[in-house]
Design a protein that fits this description.
The chain is of the alpha+beta class. It contains 4 helices and 5 strands.
Length: 187
């Protein structure tokens, strides 16, 4: 358990903690306001699945939400999160891929109305990283405080349980030796 705790701490530190800290070191949160919401003429392919043997590709229009942050006057492109940014850095929204292109277009249009009518010019919290992507902001972070907590908590608990087992084993052995010595003194 001690080795498993140390190895998992090392593994999670390299795989989760380091990227999370890099993301947090160059960025922060800001207040964003919507400048423009538009659909580009460009359409992108997505893959849908409708069962084990049913797969295909469909297309969706590209929706861009341009925002202004409280940290910069330059417009920035809004993304849902880092995963969506990596999947399609040109668009702000990727709809759940449906078989029908029309349904994908309706999904994007619905999201466009949401950003224009519901959010409008109301400020909201967004996240940025000036070092990695200065022209993009995210609506939510993939690596938040809970990820950092879990990267430390569970390997540390595993390590401490291993140490506790070793200490209890040593104590039990010590007590057994003492009990044997007391038993020999009585006889």
């Amino acid at each position: 358990l001690i080795a498993a705790g140390l190895l998992s701490l090392l593994g999670l530190g390299c795989c989760w903690l380091r990227p999370a800290l890099q993301e947090r070191s160059g960025g922060g949160s800001a207040n964003c306001t919507v400048l423009a919401v538009r659909q580009l003429g460009e359409r992108f392919a997505c893959t849908f699945s409708c069962g084990a043997a049913c797969r295909g590709t469909a297309r969706y229009p590209c929706l861009q939400v341009l925002v202004r942050t409280s940290r910069s006057s330059a417009p920035a492109l809004l993304h849902e999160d880092e995963r969506q940014l990596r999947t399609n850095p040109k668009c702000s929204y990727i709809p759940p891929c449906a078989r029908d292109d029309q349904e994908n277009s309706e999904n994007v249009t619905c999201k466009q109305k949401y950003w224009k009518e519901k959010v409008g010019s109301q400020p909201f919290t967004c996240y940025f990283n000036q070092h990695l992507r200065p022209d993009d902001v995210m609506l939510k972070r993939t690596h938040d405080e809970t990820v950092l907590l879990h990267c430390f908590l569970w390997p540390l608990v595993t390590f401490l349980v291993g140490v506790l087992i070793v200490v209890l084993t040593i104590c039990a052995k010590s007590l057994a030796v003492r009990a044997e010595a007391i038993k020999k003194k009585k006889h």
